[in-house]
Design goal:
The complex is a heterodimer of chains A (114) and B (114). By secondary structure, chain A is mainly β. Chain A has no helices and twelve strands. Classes of the chains: A mainly beta (114), B mainly beta (114). Chains A and B meet through strand 5 and strand 6 of A and strand 5 and strand 10 of B.
Chain lengths: 114, 114
Amino acid sequence: AQSVAQPEDQVNVAEGNPLTVKCTYSVSGNPYLFWYVQYPNRGLQFLLKYITGDNLVKGSYGFEAEFNKSQTSFHLKKPSALVSDSALYFCAVRPRDSNYQLIWGAGTKLIIKP
Amino acid sequence: DARVTQTPRHKVTEMGQEVTMRCQPILGHNTVFWYRQTMMQGLELLAYFRNRAPLDDSGMPKDRFSAEMPDATLATLKIQPSEPRDSAVYFCASGLAGSNTEAFFGQGTRLTVV
């Protein structure tokens, strides 16, 4: 079965430090990869996606993600965390043979401490 | 600033009552998604529309849930009769058709069935 894993339920980072939120997937072919963020009592917001090309993808709010094909991973990163980055982060994967289906990770709660 | 609009934001209803949730997709988008979010199940796709046609409603309990798009500016999700297990946050999202495109989410309807 195809799946997306976010191995950490919660990640704690001090403000100003770099952050990484991990995502690995088990999806056949070369899927499209997405990160979304959900702030409390809000809908999900698109952060970035990997389609093809450069393995390092830059997105909104200073976030970037690194695609690693051999490890089937798509980790979300930011060089310097802000308290306002505290939120729930979702990794999602779309198989290339689907126009709409997304396989979602369970989400990682990111807490940035001042 | 284009956004997906969902109404109501909150709904408390008694078991057995009909619930209707509405969604206005972003103008120009030709796909609409309905998702349900719960702590236990995470994000579940309930229905998918493209060009107002329902292409996938396999995630919906057919006996009580129904989804429609009367026109390009309105999508509805109905539950009749509602049950306590339907309590969740329901999200509508819209986007452009295509396997590498992202979805734009509304702020959700928090439904509580008592």
